[in-house]
C-alpha cells in the first residue's frame, strides 16, 4: 500500500525527451502553513526570502506528500544534473461555466475524438478539470496522425466543441508578455548576490568604513539599473518580433461548405 502511494505521488512528464520532468504531488496543511507564517514574522521575512530562493523548501514546509489526483500543489524537477525545482499550483477549471448544457454521463464523450485527453481529464459529474500551466504553448496530442485529424475533424467542429476546446486548451496563440519594470526590479533586488551586498553595506557602516559602503551602494544600484534596462529591452524586442510574425489570416471550411475567415493576432 505504501509503495502504491509513493508511485501515485510521483509521475514522469515527457519521458525520454529533452524537456523531461518529474512531478510530485503535495497537499497544503493548515497547521504547517500557520507555523511557517509565524516563523516568517519572527524572522522579519527572512524565511520568506529563503522560500523565494528555494521553492522546494516552501512546499516541503507547508505541504504533505499525497497522490497527484488529490494534490493542490506540485513540484516539478528537471532530470538533468542540475535538478532544478519549480513550484506550481493546481488550477481547477469548471466546464459548467459554459453557456450550453454539457452531459454529465461518464459514458458520453465531451469531444468527438474519443481518444482526446479532454475526455479523460474532465471529471464527471462535477465537470471539473485539474491542470497546471507548465509551458506557455500548449501542443496538440501527438497520438493523432494526419489521417486521424482529417477523418475525425474533416467536417469541422461544432460550436459547442469549439467552446469546450477554447476553454480547456486556451487560445491558439504565442503570447510573449512584456515584463513590468517593477517586477524585473524586485527579481534583481532579491538576488542572493545583492542580499549579500546589503549585509556588506551594513557591516561597513557598523565599522565606520563609509567610503567602502557608499562605493558598494553606487556599484550595486548601477548594476541593477543596467540589468533591468537590458532585460526590459529584450522583452520588448521579443514581444514585437512575435507579434509581427503571428498575424495571419486563417480560412476555415464549415460543415455546410461555408468558409469563414479569421485573423489571428498575437495578444499584447
Automatic annotation (TrEMBL):
Q: Where are the transmembrane segments?
A: 31-53
Topological type in the membrane: Multi-pass membrane protein
What general EC class does the enzyme of this chain belong to?
A: translocase
Q: What is its EC number?
A: 7.2.2.-
Q: Its domain of life?
A: Eukaryota
InterPro entries xref list: ATPase_P-typ_cation-transptr_N (IPR004014), ATPase_P-typ_TM_dom_sf (IPR023298), P-type_TPase_V (IPR006544), P5A-ATPase_N (IPR047819)
Check the record and name the Pfam families matching this protein.
Answer: Cation_ATPase_N, P5-ATPase
Q: Which reaction does it catalyse?
A: ATP + H2O = ADP + phosphate + H(+)
Gene Ontology CC terms, in alphabetical order: late endosome membrane
Query: Which UniProt keywords are present, listed alphabetically?
Result: ATP-binding, Magnesium, Membrane, Metal-binding, Nucleotide-binding, Translocase, Transmembrane, Transmembrane helix
Q: What is this protein called?
A: Cation-transporting ATPase
Q: Which organism is it from?
A: Panthera pardus (Leopard)
Gene name of the record? LOC128777272
